[in-house]
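Late entry, written up from scratch paper. The run itself happened at the end of the previous shift, but nothing got recorded in the book at the time, so transcribing now.
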Amino acid sequence: AASAAPAAPVDDITLGQFAKGVLAAAPCAALEAAGVTSSALLHLPSAVCEVSRALYYDDQHGPVLKSLAATMLPAGIGIGLAITGLAAFGYGAMCGALDAAQHGVRESFQNRVQDVRDFDKKVTSTLLELKADNDAKRDAAAPPPAHPAPAPAPAPAAAA
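Output as recorded:
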């Protein structure tokens, strides 16, 4: 019977590379999480505004579903920010450790800063697309019905 040869490791890593990766993981994770979460918080007011406008101009759903979505928006914001921070922390730790082991600690930190910049650019472009879509829906919507002018107030009675 033929015995299978043991598989060769894909990447050999030295003890020094391992140490660099372990030492860089936590600061890179903190940098990524702080940067991405800060960016998300920075864009939060415009995101809430554009999502609310998208709900208002949406003609696919009725008022009950729109009201429910608007009511749940604050919970979604909190959950979304928490998930963003945790995901960025995990991504920063993993990529920071790998970059530090392969390319050095300095390049690892530079890559995390670039990740935050890329995230910020992506969020900005997505919000601009949503704003343009909302503006197009607003412009295509029928104008609101005209309200009759209020009746003039009666003149005060003159004292005799």
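The helical segments are 15-57, 63-103, 105-140.
(Scratch paper discarded after transcription.)
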